[in-house]
């Protein structure tokens, strides 16, 4: 950890953990018509999607995502392309993977992946959304808004909060991301981007406390 990276306090850890738990939908993964792996900086999405494929939960997997400022250097050919390559390295057959290489946000992930599936002649009734652990709730709320007739089930790597902090190696960045995603869960329904999600009082209090403490780099202008 560099000198510029902030170590969070014990209170901040507990606040962030409350938000981490809230972000996860705690769905039980079960057979679906397709899975959609949402592009991001986290290659663990592709790893988890490959695991679920090998468990026989779906026959077709779509990886969706172009590039963003946070992923361009890590995945120069685009998030979906690198995710696909990683899944193939994990013995998912290339024939089982569809590619959507343009999406720049979660709404586009859902909309463009749906178009790719339609072009392949696939109209799913049940979709398994595979994302980063703290992105489950936002991806679920977005997908339910944009594709309400489909049953959505969320999945992510089964990591404890401490393990995820260690895997990223920057505690402040992780807390910033948790806070930023919660802001989107709260604000996006007002903009028509997602369905409303109830936020428990303790989670909202943790969110407001962390914003006051300066964990704000991933907030959008309101």
TrEMBL record:
InterPro entries: Cell_Envelope_Assoc (IPR051599), DUF218 (IPR003848), Rossmann-like_a/b/a_fold (IPR014729). It holds the Pfam family DUF218. It comes from the Bacteria. Residues 36-150 form the DUF218 domain. PANTHER family: DUF218 DOMAIN-CONTAINING PROTEIN (PTHR30336:SF20), INNER MEMBRANE PROTEIN, PROBABLE PERMEASE (PTHR30336). This is YdcF family protein. It comes from Streptomyces olivaceus. The lineage of its organism: Bacteria, Bacillati, Actinomycetota, Actinomycetes, Kitasatosporales.
């Amino acid at each position: 950890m560099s000198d510029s990276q902030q170590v969070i306090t014990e209170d901040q850890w507990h606040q962030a953990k409350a938000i981490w738990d809230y972000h996860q939908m705690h769905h039980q993964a079960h057979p679906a018509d397709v899975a959609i792996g949402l592009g991001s900086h986290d290659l663990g999405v592709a790893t988890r999607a490959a695991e679920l494929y090998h468990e026989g939960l779906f026959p077709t997997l779509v990886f969706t995502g172009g590039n963003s400022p946070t992923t361009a250097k890590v995945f120069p050919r685009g998030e979906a392309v690198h995710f696909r390559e990683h899944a193939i390295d994990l013995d998912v057959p290339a024939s089982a993977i569809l590619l959507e290489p343009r999406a720049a946000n979660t709404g586009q992930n859902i909309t463009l992946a749906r178009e790719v599936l339609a072009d392949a002649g696939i109209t799913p009734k049940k979709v398994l959304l595979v994302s980063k652990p703290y992105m489950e709730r936002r991806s679920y709320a977005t997908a339910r808004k944009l594709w309400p007739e489909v049953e959505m089930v969320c999945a992510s790597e089964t990591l404890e909060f401490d393990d995820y902090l260690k895997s990223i190696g920057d505690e402040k960045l992780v807390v910033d991301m948790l806070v930023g995603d919660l802001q989107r869960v709260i604000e996006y329904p007002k903009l028509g981007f997602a369905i409303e999600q109830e936020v428990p009082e303790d989670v909202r209090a943790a969110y407001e406390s962390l914003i006051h403490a300066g964990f704000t780099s991933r907030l959008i202008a309101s």
